[in-house]
Structure formats: C-alpha cells, structure tokens
Amino acid sequence: MKTPRRKSPARASTQKCPVCGQTVNPNPRYPRYLCRACAKQATDEAGRKLEFGNTDIGGGFEARYADAGKIRRSHVCFVKGIRCWADEARFGGIVLEAVEDRFMGKFNSLPLARLDWRKMTNHRMKRPSMTLTTEGGFRDNRPTPGLVRRVVNKLDTGQGNSFCCLESADHNYVQTMHGLNGWHLEWREPGRPDIRQYRHYRAASLVGSNRRRLLRKSDKFVSCGLECDLLNAKEVEQCFLTFLRSEERPKDFKWRQLKI
Length: 260
Ligand SMILES: [Zn+2]
Known about the structure:
Blueprint: E1 15-16, E2 23-24, H1 36-39, E3 50-53, E4 62-65, E5 71-72, E6 76-79, E7 82-88, E8 94-98, H2 117-124, E9 130-134, E10 139-140, H3 145-153, E11 163-168, E12 173-179, E13 182-190, E14 198-205, E15 215-216, E16 222-223, H4 233-246, E17 253-258
Antiparallel strand pairs: 1-2, 3-4, 4-5, 6-7, 7-8, 9-10, 9-11, 11-12, 12-13, 13-14, 14-17, 15-16
Bound molecules: zinc ion.
C-alpha cells in the first residue's frame, strides 16, 4: 500500500506521468519523468525494446537493446510514440523524461522550451569512442565525420593504403577495400561473446550488377566477389558515417553473411 506523501509548499503539489497521465511523486528536478510502467516500455525509433542501466556502481549511463544486449549509443528513446530522454538519475538509477508530451498544457507539464533537447544532445551525448585505422598505418581514436570521409576517399587501389576499418569499443566494425573497379564493404558484429565469435557480412548494393565480379587491385591482389557487391565511394562513405554516428548497420544494403 502506498503511503501518502506530505506536501511541501515549495514543490508542485501534483505531478503526472507525461505519457499515461498517472499521478507520480512530485520531483522538481525531473518534472517530466515517466512512471515505472511507462519507463519499462522504452524502444528505439524502430520499436526495438531498450533497457537502461548504470555503467558501474558510481553511476554512468548505458542503453542496450533488450534482444541482443548490444549497446546503443544514444539517450533518446520512445514510449508510446513520445520521444523521451533516458539518463542516469542524480542519486543513482535511471530516469526517463518525456521530451515531447502528448498531454501538453495539462498535468502541469512544462512547455517544450524548458527542455531544449537539441542542446542536451550536443552537450550531454558522449561521442562514441571509435578507432579508425588504415592499411598504411594511420590510426585515430576519436575520428570526426570529416576525418572518416577524408580517410575513406584517400584510399588508393593497392599501393599500400587500400583498406581502412572503423571499430567501436565493443568490437563491431565496418571495413572497406578499394580496388580498381570498385569497393568492398564488410561489417562485423559480435556473436557469442563466450567463445569470441563474430558474424561477418559483405554489403551488396540493391541496384548493382548481378554478375559475380572480382575486386581487382593494382597490386594484382583480387578479392572474391559476390553478386552486387561492388560498391561506389559514396555508398562506402555513407555506411562509415552511419556507423560512426549510431553503430548501426545501414539498411541501404543487403548484408550477406560470410563464412570466415
Ligand atoms: Zn506512465
């Protein structure tokens, strides 16, 4: 049974969950926090279930996909179509707050201006720590989108700097190889961590030629081809930038699993 809280005059006397409207304990620090039942329903943009936790005993914030356990590098989530922001709570645990609010103007909810979520993104989102490496020996541990774009576009076709790899902290990566007749693009994600298993995929363009063609390089090296897997520089660049931003596998390609 719930014990009624004593009302303090400094606090808002009522506060409601911005998603379902249920009364919650007033909290001036988190005026738009979600009730427990709503917070459990958080998903990503595509409706994939998310779970949140602290990274260690001192706090920190971590979002993971509930199905695969894979880290999602974002504080943004959705509950019943309402954009929310998940973060570590001041005194431990996790708090979800609505950024936009179906019940705007009711339930003492704050106007959107009080919670400028674009500012919050810039200032509070940690840049994912990724490593960009090239065959030629270049390495950068915090590459910017501009640097990734430059490195990809400067790869040669077999003079000692024809491939590069962008790897996340949890060992997902995308890598590409530049040849005389196109680009190969591969993606790796961890499978079973206990046996250090990974799944490898090759990207195939949805519009490319159906013939199997080898990727030819100027050093006479060839890479075996699958149908439609010769990409162009723009496609590779976009994939690297998507991966840098979200660690997501871009949807614009067919991904075929490779046996390695
Ligand atoms: Zn609720």
